[in-house]
Design brief:
Layout (H helix, E strand, L loop, with lengths): L8 E3 L7 H6 L4 E4 L15 H12 L3 E5 L4 H8 L6 E2 L8 H10 L6 E5 L2 H10 L3 E5 L8 H19 L8
Parallel strand pairs: 1-6, 2-3, 2-5, 3-4, 5-6
The structure holds magnesium ion.
Length: about 170
């Protein structure tokens, strides 16, 4: 059970994830979270750096879909200027949105990596749906109320994973 919360990889930010290294691992598609993964949860639009990250993925032929548990207005406002498919109110960690995104991208799950800042939604959801997963450090320390509760459980899980020697980074 605990292993379901274990990401395949852990990075400081999305900018450590480049299309070349993804392709080496056989990855052709990315399903990414929005809030605190791409930008701060209270930041409406992509920053220039995020924009160029999306452009590099596109140039290298990596498909990207944004899936978020947040509401339509937020996810649409952010995603539309990027011209990327998105799913709002995804209800992660439920599988449905992940499966739909994979189907729309036309890729098998083993060729897709799920990227996100939350163990309980992004990593747990991605793992149980059969994707590779990358955990990123949340962009800002603050969170929406619902997430603050999840963070407490997350810290508990991270500590247990650490005690079992399953993670090699500093929590
Ligand atoms: Mg998030």
């Amino acid at each position: 059970m605990l292993r379901r919360f274990l990401p395949d990889q852990y990075v400081r930010s999305i900018f450590e994830i480049n299309p070349e290294s993804l392709k080496e691992k056989g990855i052709k598609g990315v399903i990414t979270d929005l809030d605190n993964t791409l930008v701060a949860w209270n930041e409406a639009h992509a920053t220039p750096m995020v924009l160029s990250w999306f452009n590099r993925m596109e140039e290298e032929g990596i498909d990207v879909t944004i899936i978020s548990n947040n509401k339509k207005a937020r996810v649409e406002l952010f995603s539309q200027p990027l011209n990327k498919p998105y799913i709002h109110k995804a209800r992660k960690p439920l599988k449905r949105a992940f499966v739909k995104a994979a189907k729309d991208m036309g890729l098998p799950r083993k060729e897709i990596v799920v990227i996100g800042d939350q163990l309980l939604t992004d990593i747990f959801g991605g793992n149980r749906a059969g994707f590779q997963t990358i955990l990123v450090v949340p962009i800002v320390e603050t969170d929406e109320k619902i997430t603050q509760f999840n963070r407490k459980i997350e810290r508990y899980i991270l500590n247990r994973l650490k005690r079992k020697g399953l993670i090699k980074w500093e929590v």
